[in-house]
Every structure is written in structure tokens, then in C-alpha cells.
Design brief:
By secondary structure, the protein is mainly alpha-helical. Helix 3 packs across helix 6 and helix 5 crosses helix 7.
Amino acid sequence: MGFDPGSKPSFEELYREYLRRIYGYVRAQVGSPAEAEDLTSQVFVRAWEAYGRYLPQSQTPSAWLFRIARNLIVDRGRRGANAQKALRLVGQEIRPEPDPAQLAEEHIRDQQLLAAVVALSERQREVVSLRHAGGFGFMEIGGIMGVSEDAAKMLYHRALAKLREALPDMRPQ
């Protein structure tokens, strides 16, 4: 949808525009669909409570909402929640193929990818999730994570290098 810079969209517009992206980001961070739904709801409750204080001149709606989501995830981590973290790309589900051997190979590749993502540092998982599940550019990722654009790029490229190292036989299809 894209909002005019500096204008304040209605809360309903924000909700409709960002619900799926926020859910995808949260889901990639926490792993569990039920927990992701709960945290996504909390993001929008907090956003609703803070909507009167939101200043669109100081940050984009997406950066504002994703920062709320990030803070909730960090708070969840501080409380000691021990859910498995995994990368799930929004809108990309594995569609069953009639060939069982191909399904088995895809399952093994998915498990290898998930294991490699889980082995990344928390910040690396976060930057990969924001880039792929959230669809953000590096400037927005930096704003959400509280780092510079260049630092976000460096973190992302280091994460990709670790994934390539962990998965040398896996090539994009």
C-alpha cells in the first residue's frame, strides 16, 4: 500500500497493511505458530495503546511496528521462554509432490536449513528474518534493530556466509 511520508495512516490501515508481515517476522523468530499469533496480537495491542504518541515524521510505520514486535520478542527471551527459533519464509509453504523421494529430499533440505538457521546467533537470525520474512531493506532493518544500515548489511552478509559454510551442497532452486 505505501503511505505518504510524514502522514499518519489510520490504525486500521496499519493493521491491514502489516499484519501478515509482522506475523511472518514473529513466526520466524519464535517458531511456534500459536506463540507467533499471540505475540502478533500483543504487537497490535501495544501499537493501539501507543498510537496517539506515534509520530510518522520520526520513523516509518513499518519501522515503528517492527520495533514493537522486536521489543516483545526480546522481552519474551528475557523471561526465559525456550521456544525453538526457526526461519519460516512468509507465503512459502512446501507443496506436497506426488513423488515420495522428492518429498523426503525436500524435508531433509528443510531440516538442514532450519538447523543451520537455529545455529546462527540471535542477531543473525533476526536480520535474516527481517530481510526475508519481513521484506525489509537494510535501512529499515537498521532502524528496527537499532544499528546503522551498514551494520545491518554486515550482519546479514556474515549470516549468509555462515549459512553457506554450514550448507555447502545446498543451492537455490
